[in-house]
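Subject: Interface between my chains keeps coming out wrong

I've been trying for a while to get a sensible model of this assembly. When I model each chain on its own everything looks fine, but I need the whole thing in one frame so I can look at the contacts. Pasting all components below, labels as-is. Any help appreciated, I'm running out of ideas.
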Amino acid sequence: MGKAAIVGVAQTKYERRKKDQIFADLVFDVTREALADAGMTIDDIESVVTVSNDFFDGRTISGMAVGDACGGQDKNISTVSGDGTFGAFYGLMRVLSGFRTTLVVAHYKGSEGSVPVTTNGMFDPLFHRLLGVDAVSSAALQANVYMNRHGVTEEEIAAVSVKNHGNALNNPYAQVPLRITVADVMASRKIADPLKLLDCCPVSDGAAAVIIADEETAKRGGRRPAWVKGVAHCCEDYLLGDRDLADPAALRAAAAKAYAMAGIEDPLSEIDVMEVLEPFSYMEPLWLEGLGVCRPGEGASLVERGVTTMDGRLPVNPSGGALSANPILVAGLARLVEAVLQVRGEAGARQIKGAKTALAHGFNGPCGQSHCVWIVGAEG
Amino acid sequence: MGRRVAIVGTGQTYHKSHRPDVTSREMIREAVVAALADADLTIKDIDAVVIGNMDHFESINYVDTYSVEGSGAFMKPVMKVSTGGTTGSTVAIAAYYHVASGLFDRVLAVGFEKNSESDTTAAIITCSDPVWDRFSYSGAIPSLATEATAYMEKYGATQEDAAMVGERDRGHALNNPYAHLRRPLTVADIMASPMLAYPIKLGDICPRSDGACAVILAADGIAQKIASRPAWFKAVSVRHTYTWFGDSTDYNKGLVSLQRASREAYAQAGIKNPVEEIDVAELYLPYTWAGLKWIEDLGFCGPGEAARFVGDGNTHMGGKLPVNPSGGVLSTNCIGATALLRVAEAAIQIMGKGGKRQVPDVKTALATGFGGCFWSDVVILSAVRP
Amino acid sequence: MEKNGTPVERLEITFKHPMPYEWSIGRYGSRFFQEIREKRRFIGIRCDGCGSVYVPPRRVCGPCFRELTELVPLSDTGVLTAFSVVNYPFIDPATGELRPIPYTYGYIRLDGADNIFSHLINEKDWHKIKVGMRVRAVFKNPEEMEGNIQDIKYFDLLP
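Reply #2:
Try treating it as a single job with all components included. I did that and got this:
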C-alpha cells in the first residue's frame, strides 16, 4: 500500500436530540473543525466522501442534503452508504489513486427516525422482517449464542458496560458518561434477554469528519499525522441462520489482512489501544476475540483480568465506545477519530500514555456482518 | 498517481417491467454470473465488490450485506455507494478507485433496481427535502418538464424536435437483445401519447424497469491477460454541484454539472474536439429533451443547435457520433443499474462485443450518469492503454 | 419443482407500513415559519461572500462555503420561472394515499431572492400560465398555521 495519513479530525458532542440543527448543520460544523485541525481551507480539499443512509435520514439520496455543508460544490464527491470506517476506506483509496486530500464526513440523527423500523429494514423482507426483528432483538440472539457457547455470565458482560460508561467520564464528546456498578447494570430494565438497558447503546445525534492526505501533503502539514498502517474489510453471510453468530469470521479475516499490512503479529502486545464498535456490551469481547486479542471464549474475562481497562495492557474504548454514544454510521468514524487522537497524544483525559499504534473498528449489517479494521500509527 | 485500470467484462440481465420470478438477490446474481462468464473468471478471482441502488425503491436497508449471496461478496470486502440516478456510474467510479489505489486487482461493480417493488414516483419524491419540497414535489417528471419549458422558450425548440431523440433511442433498442422496450416509437407516436406534465408526454420519458448490471475491472498487467481488448479508463469525473432544488434551476445556464464534469474529463483524456475524437456515447438521457439540451452541455454542438444536429442524423447509428446504440435510458431504466449500464455499454463498444448494436472500430467511448439535484458523472474509456 | 413440469405460483409480500420520522427544521427554518405566522412575509439569508440571497434560509452558502447569518426580509411576491401541471397519479409518501391531481407545481423567484422557491400555483389550466408571470403568496389564517410549508396555501397568478 502507498503511504497516506489522517491529518485532520473532528466530532460533535453526541446528544440525544439536537433539535436546533438539521443534520447538514452538524456536517458543516465538523467539516470546518476538521479543516481547522488540519490547518487547511476548503480549497485544499480535492475530493469528498460523505457517509449517509437513506433509511436513517428518511430521504432518498440523503448524501445530497449535505453537499453544500461538506464543501462539496464543484468537487469530486461521492457517498458511501454504511459505517464511517467504510467511508474512510473509500477516502483512502481516492488518496492512493492520486488525490492529494479527501475529506470524509458522516452524520446521523437517531432522534429523527424510528430505530426499530429502520433497523428492521436490514432484515430479509420475505422471511424475517414480519417477525419484527431489529438491531436490538438480533443482538440479543447473538448475545445468547455467544454466552451459551462459552459459559459467559451476564455479570461478565455487564462489566464491559461499567468500564465503557466509566471511561466516558473522561470524554467530553460522550453522551452517557456514568459511574455505575455491575449491580446497576444487572438491575436495569430488561430490554431483550439477556440484554438489559445498560447493556445497550443510547440513541444519538452527531457527526464526525476526517481528512486523509497523501504522504507529501501529510509531511508538509503542521500537525502530527496519524499514518495508515493497515486497513481491510470483509463481509460474511447475510441470513443469521447461515452464520455462526459466536464466531466473527469476517472480522477475523479483515483483522488478519490489516495486521499483515501493518506488520503486526501479536495484536495484544503490538497495539497500544483499541476503539471497537460495541453498541451492545457483549460485542466488545466478541469482537476482541475476532481481532485475535484472545482466544474464543476468553474475551469476557478481559475486563475482570484488567487487560482492557484504562490502565490495562491493551485499553479498549477509552472514549466510552458506542455504549456511551451510538450515532450509527458516525460511530465507526468516531472510533477512527479517537484512534487518531490517541496516536497524536491529544486525547485529553482519556489519553493512553505513550500510545503509538491504535486500532479502530466499525461494522455494517445485522450482528456485525461486514467489519472494517483500521490500524493507525504515530510513525510513518 | 494511481494504477491504470480497465474494464475486462460486463454482464446484464434482460430487462422487464416486472421480474416476479426472482428476488433482488437472485436478479443481481444473473448479472454477476454473466459478467464473470464474459471475462472468463470465477467469483474466486474477485478481490472486492462495490454495489449500489436506491434504498427506498426496494425498501431494503444495507443492500451491501443483504445481497451477498447474489453479488458473490461472501467473505470478501463489499462497499455500498449510493448517489441517486448517478448510482451506477458512482459504483463504476468507486470500483475504479478500488483498483487504481493498488489495494485490489480485480473488482466487481454491481448496480440493480427492482422498480416494480415500490411506487417509483413516491420513492423519488422522498429525495426532496421533507421540510421544504416534499409537499409540492411530484417526482422527476415535473423538474425535467420545467427544464424543457425553459429550453423551448429560449431556443424555440419544439416538442417534435425532442421526440426525434425518442424515436432514435427506441429505434436503436431494436438492436439490443437486453433492452426493456423493444418496439419502435415514432415522432408521431410520441406526439400522440398522453400528456403527463407539459411538455412531457408518456413517449418522452424512460420506463421503469427491473434489472441488474455487473462490470469487472482489473489492474494494468492483469487486465491484458483477462481480456484481449480491455476498455481502459481514460477519465472519470464527478460534479454533484447542488444541494437545494431551488439553487439549480437557472436553466439558461444549462446543465452546469455536466458542462464542468465533461470539461474535466476531456482535459484528463486530452480531448479537444469531442465530436471528432469520441466514437460513441452512452448518455444517461432520462427524457427526450435531455438528448437535445445535454449534448450541447457536453459540447457535441453549440447552444440551440441540438435539434439540427440530431435531425441531421449525426447521433444515429452510422452518424458522426452515435448516441445510445443500446437504446439508452428511454428504452431501459432500472435506476441503480442505469448509469452502470451506460459504462458497461461503452465498454462493450470498445471491446467490440456489441453485436447488432456495435459501432464499427470504436477507440474512444463516453458514458454519463445523471441524477440527484441535476448532478453529472462522466467516464471516458479507450481501446488504447493510457 | 418447476423442473418436474409443474409451474409454481409467484407469490409476493406487501408492506404498507409507513416509516415515521421527526425532522428538525433548524434555527433559520424555524425562524422562516415564525416570520410567516407573525408577519406574513418571507425571509431569506444573504451570503457576505457572493451576495446571493437564499430562500429558504440555511446556514451555508454552497459555492462560497461560508457561514450565513444575515437574515433579510423578502416580499410575498415574485416571478414564475418554470411550472408544470402535474397530471399523473402517484402515491404521496407523506400520506400513503394518491395525491389529488391535477395540480400546478411552480418555481418562483421571490422578489429580493437569487435562488428559487418551489410551491403550488393556484391555476390548473396550463393555457393560462406563462413563465415570467408575477405571483403572490396566499397564506393560511394564522390560527390554522402549523409551522410548516403548508402555512402557505399556494401562489396566485397576478394579472
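Reply #3:
Confirming on my end. The first strand of chain B starts at residue 5 and ends at 12.
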